[in-house]
Amino acid sequence: xxxxxxxxxxxxxxxxxxxxxxxxxxxxxxxxGNAEPQRRTFAExxxxxxxxxxxxxxxxxxxxxxxxxTLMWNNAEHVEAYFAIPAMGSVLHTLNLxxxxxxxxxxxxxxxxxxxxxxxxxxxxxxxxLPRLDTVEHVVVVGPGDTSVLDGCRPAVHEYExxxxxxxxxxxxxxxxERTAAAxxxxxxxxxxxxxxxxSHRSVYLHSMQVNMxxxxxxxxxxxxxxxxxxxxxxxxxxxHAAFMTGVNLLMPDRFLQPAPLAEMIEAERPTHSAAVPTIxxxxxxxxxxxxxxxxxxxxxxIGGSACPPSLMRTFExxxxxxxxxxxxxxxxxxxxxxxxxxxxxxxxDAWPYRVSQGRFPASVEARLIGPDGSEMPWDGKSAGELExxxxxxxxxxxxxxxxxxIRPEDRFSPDxxxxxxxxxxxxxxxxxxxxxxAKDVIKSGGEWISSVELENHLMGHPAVAEAAVVAVPDEKxxxxxxxxxxxxxxxxxxxxxxxxxFLADKVARWQLPERWTVIPAVPKTxxxxxxxxxxxxxxxxxxxxxxxx
Length: 550
Ligand code: AMP
Prior knowledge:
Blueprint: H1 12-21, E1 27-30, E2 38-41, H2 42-59, E3 67-71, H3 76-87, E4 91-94, H4 101-111, E5 115-119, H5 123-126, E6 138-142, E7 156-159, H6 160-164, E8 181-186, E9 196-200, H7 201-212, E10 224-227, H8 239-246, E11 249-252, H9 259-269, E12 273-276, H10 278-290, E13 300-303, H11 310-320, E14 323-329, E15 336-339, H12 348-355, E16 359-360, E17 366-370, E18 376-377, E19 385-390, E20 419-427, E21 432-438, E22 443-445, E23 448-450, H13 452-459, E24 465-475, E25 479-488, H14 497-505, E26 516-519, H15 533-541, E27 548-549
Parallel strand pairs: 1-11, 3-4, 3-5, 4-8, 5-6, 6-7, 10-11, 10-12, 12-13, 13-14, 25-26
Antiparallel strand pairs: 1-2, 8-9, 14-15, 16-21, 17-18, 17-19, 19-20, 20-21, 22-23, 24-25, 26-27
Helix pairs in contact: 1-2, 1-3, 1-8, 2-3, 7-8, 9-10
Adenosine monophosphate binds near residues 328 and 330.
């Protein structure tokens, strides 16, 4: 028997219409450096979004399903593109501006982007690639920048404001099938070619509702959120879409992502929430210690993208009264997978074990753990396995390219359709995930697993340690053993490897203690700011690290 309910498609245009009318007074403030910030209401954004859609369709001939790329920072214009492109039935493709040139060229070609919206400040990055971006017919330059670098380039060049000027401020958004493509994002691809994840209107809609739930970010129009996480990194964790559902004001940092301007904009614009990867918060802590600022407006921050060291969470809470909420997700999961609010009724020290975990699964993310022998592991908080997930905002395949079938690599998708995350961890009976490693980073020592993440978290709790990355290196006797690479805090003075090892001794089993140690100036990072252990392993293999053996 069918229900008697209306079958209304869950589309991005519905989020847009709601946000720009019911929450028309909410604002996007974009930081501009020294000058006065740029301020726009959601109502104004709505009119400009319509103008952009007209410009793309009538001015540039962009049609349904055509891919339109953005190479942009977090700013109001990027939000306009976020809504206009999917709402008109085309596909938004956010480009990660930190990827190597070769990968960007490959990705644009694979997605067959017809147009690119680019921030003027990023023209020096785009211009040298243009001769190789064969599918791109139009470049739209947003904001000030030296456009002379585009002289003589093949694609037609347009200026964003000029393209919008005089266009109608309303658009008859088409009624789309909720399962059609709204946006796409390529994974950072540490091995092989990057993989394209294509989000549907439905997945964006449902994911945004989850972001707004109290058990996730739980924001309202009384909040201002500062998404430091880039809009090219999994839709800024869903914040722009979620904001238009509930009227959350947005403070956009544009290209000012260094600790000093971040501290300055927090003090001046008083956001109540922020979201970023741990390295950003490490930097902010160091900045605040040196140049104190008033960050008392911040109620809570969402940290994810890589494991958040518990010491970082504690410092923010104890020193600044900011509640850090840990979350886990990936490009393939839109990204929301788990969020670390403790169970109701627990507070203080009782809540910490839950808060430092990666968090709890929401109703729409089903999870299972697959052990080394392929069998499903129990949720007992002890048995480790590879995490597999499924749900309405979890990828079921990768984009195969225009006209090609979607790709389902065996190592990423199980035969029964679950996403293999490549993350290894445990789950408690009440659904809290603790990641112990990436499947490829786990250290296999004498038939047992050592968690590199656990060692790193403990090391980063040492007062002299700024950052620590632990990688597996070959060992004749044990197969693999941990190598601890440590970045010392400036002015920390001398600290011996013995002291660091002793610091770990009462925190992990004896056989897990690293015997190989080295101090490095900085941990190499991937394009989205995560520890790049591949580089460390390669440096070790090449004999480039000065390793001490205890
Ligand atoms: P990406 O698709 O680039 O966002 O990378 C996703 C991966 O980042 C996940 O599969 C995890 O390995 C890692 N990751 C994300 N959030 C966390 C977290 N809170 N703790 C540990 N690892 C994380």
